[in-house]
Amino acid sequence: EGSRAAAGMRVTSLLSMPTDVRVLKMLPVADFGGERTLLMVTHNGQVLRTALEQFQKVSRAGLNCMKIKEGDRLNFVSEATPGSRVAISTRHGQVIIMSADDTRVSSRTCLGVRAITLCDDDQVVACTVIDEEKARAVDCDSEASEYRGPCLLAVSTDGLAKRVALNDFREQARGGRGVRLLSLKKGNELAAIELTPDADTMEREGWCIIVSTHEGIVNRIPLTSIRCSSRSAQGCRLIKLSDTDHVCSVTLAPGDEVASDSEDASSQAAAK
């Protein structure tokens, strides 16, 4: 464990992998049995769902998790349980919410199937899995003023953000073009999407959004400060950026967890 300013350790020193390969995601797994599956989405909109038990025996060199076409690359990996839904968004601000069960469980040597139909210059930039309990909000018919369920948070590369109620979307069949999630100005792109908790949990636990930029700037903002808007809105200013900087990652965390990490970092600094 190191401080915020520590250089860290190269992953290639722990795993046998080429130096030009980058780690996409790390998932803690305690049980490989049951109906647990991995859902993988590529840059060009292909999706593959594979049983987690196929990764139970992994050598130090690793296993191929998906067959990738030339010119494409893996973009997103997450665990998906039966009944869950997946939101797939593109850099031009489109999003499709589809059932994970629409993609049958296949072997890890498959190419996958079409998840979203893209325009010629569009690409998948972010995905999030919505578990079965939260996915019920997609079919909720409550009025916008009364809605207090989970939302889809959208953040653009120029630092604008908004929350959109899940009941503002409808489940679509796999392979559709999706709907507009965020209105973008020319030259701007969608940076990330995240699933936020319901309003009561968000207020009670003090959830925050942690934004990181390409030039290494990190900002923490209360999630309640981002209002729930329509799909056609541009959103509100989340962080001020220089002309050469842009948002590159977004993370959600409860307030007590963020406060605990800050106290630990302060203690380490004081000890030094």
User: What is the averaged pLDDT score?
Assistant: 85
Topology as a string of helices (H) and strands (E): EEEEEEEEHEEEEHEEEEH
Q: What separation lies between the terminal Cα atoms? A: 15 Å
**Amount of beta strand:** 25-35%
Poorly predicted ranges (pLDDT <50, ≥5 residues)?
none
What is the count of β-strands?
16
Shape label: globular
Helix content: 10-25%
Structural class: mainly beta
Largest sheet: 5 strands, mixed
Note down, in words, how this protein is organized:
Strands 1, 2, 3, 6 and 7 form a five-stranded mixed sheet that branches. The chain is globular. It is mainly β and 272 residues long. The protein is built from three helices and 16 strands. The longest helix has 17 residues, at 255-271. The protein has helices at residues 132-135, 199-205, 255-271; strands at 37-42, 46-51, 74-80, 85-90, 94-99, 105-106, 113-114, 124-130, 151-156, 160-165, 179-180, 190-196, 208-213, 218-222, 236-237, 247-253.
Concise overview:
The chain has helices at 132-135, 199-205, 255-271, and strands at 37-42, 46-51, 74-80, 85-90, 94-99, 105-106, 113-114, 124-130, 151-156, 160-165, 179-180, 190-196, 208-213, 218-222, 236-237, 247-253. It is mainly beta and 272 residues long.
